């Protein structure tokens, strides 16, 4: 019975993650904390919570506010006791558009704050809970758009700040993996694919439930032996697509 916390749970990938995790058997998932930056859950999240029979709990976790993050820790400790938090999923993120190109980018600081610094601050605050748990996993939701090796594939996308910060998130994941390998804590960067969400748009490749189902599989099937890797989802028929190949392999940096 594992415990999960998912940031950015109000909508999109985060909401679908909470929903799918909440539907797993009790011997796989005991509780899912749906973390948002708002005091009240969104209408969509509230519906998921109401249907979960107490398995999903909303928690206020303002990821860009250190004091706010710290305030959530005692609440989590009260619910988890001495079992700790098995899986932290750093999902919350932002993506802005810069049609004028990189030189016209004005959102780098804001994007870095959410996509990198907030992940770091959340991880620092919750890591003691993760270290107390049985599974000890931290999952950072990334994207192959943050791959420098694949940068040419995504030249068409006017999202330089998003690409830059996700590349930084990948390195952050590796640094944590190296630092905590001896303590048995698994850190993974996972690309969920281009999914049909508010952020991904309806032009995306896959329905959100398809990509998220794969993210859940990756979380469950990978442990310390995979720590520090950048993993891709696996979708039959998409193994050799361009630019998005969903081959289930490690993505290039």
Automatic annotation (TrEMBL):
GO terms for molecular function: oxidoreductase activity, acting on the CH-OH group of donors, NAD or NADP as acceptor. It comes from the Eukaryota. Belongs to the short-chain dehydrogenases/reductases (SDR) family. This is Uncharacterized protein.
